[in-house]
Amino acid sequence: MLAAVHSMPWVAVRPGQSIADRLSGLAPSAEVRTFALADLPGARSPLYVGWALLLSLLVVAWLRPEWRRSVRVGTAVLSLALTFLTFLPGGAAVRASGFREADGPSTDFLAGTWLALVGMLLVASGVSTLAASPKPSTPPEPTPVRPTPAAVTVAADSTAPADPTPIFVPPPGWAARPRPAAVPWWRRPWLVTGVVAACVAGAVLVGALVWHVAAHPPATRRGELAALVVARPADSAPARPAAVDDRVNVPQLLPPGGPDALILAAQLLDVRHAAGAAWTRPDTASVTVTLLQFDSREQADQFQQSYAEFERRARGRGGEVGIPDVPGATAFTGEGQGQAEVDAVAHRDDIVVLISADGGPPDTIAVVESLVREQYNRL
């Protein structure tokens, strides 16, 4: 279980829905971002360390029976800490989601969280049910018996028959009753009750997990990225985008060129998810929006720099324009046959935004800047 929860959906983040909104019955936000434990490196490391310590305590309790009482105490403390750490990735997911704190983003814990709790409880209960080794007890040494005067008289009489059987007289206050045998763990009521309660709690958690997965299937990353693409205007005609269902049409996305285009195409191999949209405006401008999600923020930043350098060499620095309110975003303008050609690039976290508009009037640059700003805010 603990190995499986590494890549399972762990937490979902929604904007603008507080606990009071849920209790009042308001519909949840359609915009949701799901994170697996593997997506939250800062929050997963303490859990990995805690799970390793818990498993090591199980091994120690098995190999060293005389330490089991101390190991049980350590397991109880570690279980409480792991229960807290299991829900800690919720805050990291809110920070990674990019939602504004003013929107009051809320978290929903998914299958990975509950399965990790069940696995942790099973290992902890395994440590607790191991019977402690009893301390070795040495029987008390018998107190030597002093001979009585009658015994001395009998010993002095040579005619008295010798009795080979030794006579042992217990000292006063010594209990001659045999010591009761150790009771096995399955006959101890309090321990059996604890095991049954743990099994019932595990069954309830598993049932809640199955119900939650069946009633709330986690959203996929592909669907989330596609939902973040800006909507097509109502007065435009749909066209073929450059990225659909994590597949990128490289010739459509990147203009043909020399080694620079090959470098950009090679960097596209690091794209994890891709989505896009395209349409044709009433003024005949063809607009294409593409989102590329890389494996890391550094790879996204490197692709943006390579794309910007490619555009500078193709168009010259005279057509480079910064986009206000979007950090690091750049638009490159040009004209062909009296019509504007605009390509813009920006990135937020690990997602690169590429927007192009070809064949429109000279004021198409304002349209592209507005699209870049809207797409950046959606991310």
- Judged by helices, strands and strand pairing, the structural class is alpha+beta
**What is the strand content?**
15-25%
State the shape.
Answer: elongated
Q: Separation of termini?
A: 33 Å
Counting DSSP H or I runs of 4 or more residues, the number of helices is 12
Radius of gyration, in Å, reads: 37 Å
Query: Overall pLDDT, averaged?
Result: 77
- The tally of beta strands, per DSSP, is 12
Count of domains: 2
Strand order of the largest sheet: 4-7-8-12-11-10-9
Uncertain stretches: 213-222
Run of helices and strands? EHEHHHEHHHHEEEHHEEHEEEEH
Largest beta sheet, briefly? 7 strands, antiparallel
Tell me what the structure shows.
By secondary structure, this protein is of the alpha+beta class. The chain has 2 domains: 164 residues, no CATH class; 156 residues, PknH-like extracellular domain (Protein Transport Mog1p, Chain A). The chain contains 12 helices and 12 strands. The strands form 3 sheets. It has a 7-stranded antiparallel β-sheet with strand order 4-7-8-12-11-10-9, sandwiched between helices. A 3-stranded antiparallel β-sheet has the order 2-1-3. The chain has a two-stranded antiparallel sheet with strand order 5-6. A hairpin with a 7-residue loop joins strand 9 and strand 10. Helix 2 runs antiparallel to helix 3, helix 3 runs antiparallel to helix 5 and helix 10 runs antiparallel to helix 11. It is elongated. It starts with 8 loop residues before the first strand and ends with a helix. About 3% of the residues have low confidence.
